[in-house]
Every structure is written in structure tokens, then in C-alpha cells.
Amino acid sequence: QVQLVESGGGLVQAGGSLRLSCTASGRTVNRFDMAWFRQAPEKEREFVVRISASGDRYYAAFVKGRFTISRENAKNTVYLQMNSLKPEDTSVYFCAAGFRTDTEYDYWGQGTQVTVSS
Fold it and tell me: Nearest Cα to 82, choosing from 21, 18, 7?
């Protein structure tokens, strides 16, 4: 089993930055694809970005160069650097591990709230 814990969320003004972290425990996730999703109130959860075990990155179109995913295998951690934040980025951000399909992963974190004020 893998447990994922997200951190780094908070309140930020539009145009600001945040860095989210997702730390895994239970087993190493070095060979797992890792991803970030988000879910805004009354909306479906949506894909944000994925990083493969080899470091390939896949971004949702709305990211448009504002977000960067990275992984630090020695710490069993994945990061999401978010710059130029917009109010519409306000969501709960979830970490996921173990790619099955574009929307299905083996493990999910509990999420961290990101709120961007205008």
C-alpha cells in the first residue's frame, strides 16, 4: 500500500505562486507515474499534470507553462510549482500514483486546498 500526503496549499493573491508537495510512504514510488488533479466546488475532478517514472511530463492545456511538475525520488516526493496563479485555479489539488488510465490511478491523496484571490 502507498499513502500519499499533499501539503503546501493555502491562500494566495492572483499572480502569486505556490509549491505543492506530495510525499509517499509505504513503498517507493520511483517506478510509478505520478500526477496532480484538481477539483473545484461543484465541478468534476480534472487532470492537471503527470510525470512518468522516466521523467516525461504531460500537462493539461490550461497549464500553459504556468505549472511545473518535478520529482525527488530520494525523498519519495513529487512537487507542483504553480506560478501566475489565477482565481480559476482555486481547487482542491490531489496527488495520485500508479497510472492506469488518464483518470484512474492506484493511489490518491486526501488533497490540499488552493485558494487564489482576485
Answer: 18
Q: Among residues of the chain, what percentage have pLDDT more than 90?
A: 97
Please determine, for residue 27, whether its predicted confidence score (pLDDT) is greater than 90. Answer: yes
In 3D, which of 118, 92, 114, 95 has the Cα closest to residue 106? 95
In this structure, which amino acid lies at residue 51? I
Residue 104: Cβ within 10 Å count: 9
The angle formed by the CA atoms of residues 60, 52 and 66, to the nearest 5 degrees, is 35
- The answer to whether 45 and 94 are in contact (CB under 8 A) is yes
Question: What pLDDT was estimated at residue 16?
Answer: 98
Residue 6 sits at φ, ψ, to 5 deg, of: -90, 150
What phi-psi label fits residue 34: left (phi over 0), alpha (psi between -120 and 50 degrees) or beta? beta
- Residues 36 and 96: beta-carbon distance below 8 Å: yes
pLDDT over 80 at 17, yes or no: yes
- Alpha carbons 18 and 6: distance in angstroms, whole number: 13
